[in-house]
Amino acid sequence: MLSILIPTYNYSALPLVSILWEQAMENGVPFEIIVLDDGSSDTSLWEENAKINTLPNCRFERNEANLGRAETRNKLAQVSRYDWCLFLDSDVIPVTKDYVKTYIDFIGKEYDAIIGGIRYEDKTADSSKILRYKYGKSREENKADLRKQNPYSFIFSGNILIRKAVFVAHNYSSLGNFYGLDIYFAYQLYMDNVPVLHIDNEIYHLGLEDNEVFFRKSLDSLDSRIKLLGNKPNIDEINSLLKHYNILRKRKLDRLIASLFRLSEPVLKKLILNRNPNLLSFDLYRLGYICTIKPI
Asked: Locate the Glycosyltransferase 2-like domain: which residues (predicted)?
């Protein structure tokens, strides 16, 4: 009935798998849990994650090289047994004790993809990770009622139940090891009008990146976003940043914004990378940065 599929990189997936295994066993349905390590550089975690193999219906495997999350998810789908796949990232924990049951109740119904949402724990974040925490709390932690208003704008592949055939048909693994490709996956679902449902079945995102790492990854995601999606029809419908970018470009203002960005970039960066990150400055930085990138 259900394949629970978890890519991991330099992270112990054992705590998450233990919780999911217990919840799945309580529901008495056919299931499997597969964790695939994507060439982790921290080899000490191999032994820890190998303990997953001691749990019935669970197994841990490894990529010999780092292929990226998209290709790793693709490999997980290929080796999975059941028609429904629950994809999670390894650095999350379910919010509720009936997390698995809530998803099981939607299997076989009219929707092909069900997104449970994401939350961040209500605690003071370490200053070295405050940008990722503040961004997550402000921009990603949305209830289902809000996400339903624009369902393809809130596709999060780190907590999604999806028909395997639909995932395989729309996966983006052939694009290579890009960062931040959830938006590309969402666009494929949007263009094919795949039925998507948002529910409140959240996970806590625990593995926060350091400020500089998240900042750099955010810019990397803009590179892939503009190059892969900048000229796509109807992209404005699912991504607000590309919507604003396309407005500027149509009005021939993108070069002006790029020039202003180059002048203001050091000031904006200081307002972002500090103990109290300014998210408006982060938005302006990303908009200015994306205006400096040439679409393919």
From this structure: 3-167
